[in-house]
Design goal:
Layout (H helix, E strand, L loop, with lengths): L4 E5 L4 H17 L4 E7 L14 E5 L4 H18 L3 E4 L4 H10 L3 E5 L10 E3 L10 H6 L25 H11 L11 E4 L11 H14 L5 E4 L5 H14 L6 E3 L5 H9 L3 E5 L2 H6 L6 E5 L4 H4 L9 E5 L19 H4 L3 H22 L1
Parallel strand pairs: 1-2, 1-4, 2-3, 4-5, 5-6, 7-8, 7-10, 8-9, 10-11, 11-12
Helix pairs in contact: 2-3, 5-8, 6-7, 6-12
């Protein structure tokens, strides 16, 4: 008998794809001999490209217009010829639903709502995005028709994962070796940009934080990272931090890094600080302590999904009636869920995280 063929679809974004990796592991655990494939857009493909539980990763471009129609028709025919037994649509968007339907798999699982019932043979209730429940649990729900007695996910057993490649590790090690004398083996990594304005802490706050972290201990150094289109943001933070330190460099900017290289860099850091965006969830696939800044989102939904013993400090402005929100319009108009996160609060969280990590290391040693 041929092995079961299963296809998982989650087209974007980076953080959302990270959150699907516990589902991938669960499917492999349930069907150890299955052919397990994953369909994803190219931008997030590195998250699953080397996942040990997958047999195949299909990476597609994000296209528009007639070129997308032609590409999707060809891809749909390819999926149909692959003769998948089960397709699990974890995305739920119109493109993912269409590709799920075009696969013609005997079992096609997707979420209710959005008028796409035609694409699926079985539907699962989708928890509202603003519900205070972790995104991993929301996506785990879709396993119910396949694995009705599988139980709830546990981050201790089903943490998010992304494999470090040898090439990425070697690149980061070589880059770290070029840093000026005095840079510690494990610097602090701060990601200063976000995919949308609703999750972006002010750059001036990042600069003040970098300067204060650098000045508190003489051997403490900061590395700034940003999205590929926001390198200017990291440069601006570095310049402002240096000005606050009377000309002493307070931070170094990485320049362009791939997702694989970013993951390798974070794995070598003493601490990661950043907003609720894709890089924070990439950081969650490492053992590095994390300080997460949560504006319109809630830690209960978006916190790192990993071993509970690993350090995570959440910084947020509690009791705002407009929070969480849909991130389409800021009703007060001042992004107060982020602008009211003080540098003092983030600095205190960073110091707690570093202390907790040292204490845990001392206990092990």
């Amino acid at each position: 008998m041929w092995p079961v063929r299963i296809l998982v679809i989650r087209l974007r974004l980076v953080g959302d794809v990270v959150f699907t990796t516990p589902v991938v592991r669960a499917l492999r655990r349930a069907w150890p001999d299955a052919h397990l494939a994953y369909l994803v857009e190219c931008a997030a493909a590195p998250i699953v490209a080397h996942n040990p539980h997958l047999d195949e990763v299909i990476a597609i471009d994000r296209q528009r217009g007639l070129s997308r129609v032609r590409a999707d028709l060809a891809l749909g025919w390819r999926l149909r010829r692959s003769r998948y037994d089960v397709v699990v649509d974890l995305h739920g968007g119109p493109r993912a639903a269409l590709l799920t339907w075009m696969s013609r798999a005997p079992r096609r699982l997707g979420y209710t709502g959005q008028g796409r019932a035609w694409a699926y043979t079985e539907q699962v209730h989708r928890a509202p995005d603003l519900r205070p429940r972790h995104s991993v649990r929301n996506q785990w729900d879709i396993l119910a028709p396949l694995l009705p007695s599988f139980g709830e996910p546990d981050p201790a057993d089903d943490a998010v994962e992304m494999v470090e490649t040898a090439a990425a590790g070697s690149y980061v090690d070589a880059w770290l070796a070029t840093l000026p004398p005095g840079y510690p083996a494990r610097p602090i990594v701060m990601h200063v940009s976000a995919g949308n304005v609703f999750r972006r802490w002010p750059l001036d706050s990042f600069a003040e934080l970098a300067a204060r972290l650098s000045s508190s201990f003489p051997d403490r150094r900061i590395i700034l990272t940003s999205g590929p289109s926001e390198a200017d943001a990291a440069d601006a933070v570095a310049m402002a931090a240096t000005a606050r330190l009377s000309g002493r460099a307070g931070a170094v900017v990485t320049g362009d890094t791939t997702l694989e290289q970013l993951r390798a860099l974070i794995a070598r850091a003493a601490l990661y600080i950043g907003g609720d965006s894709g890089p924070l969830h990439v950081a969650a696939t490492t053992q590095t302590p994390i300080v997460g800044l949560y504006g319109p989102t809630l830690p209960v939904r978006s916190a790192p999904w990993r071993q509970p013993s690993l350090v995570h400090e959440a910084v947020e402005v509690p009791d705002l009636p407009c929070r969480p929100c849909e991130q389409r319009v800021c009703v007060p108009g001042d992004f107060r869920c982020l602008t009211r996160i003080s540098v003092d609060a983030v600095l205190a969280a960073a110091e707690r995280a570093l202390w907790r990590a040292r204490d845990a290391a001392d206990r092990k040693g």
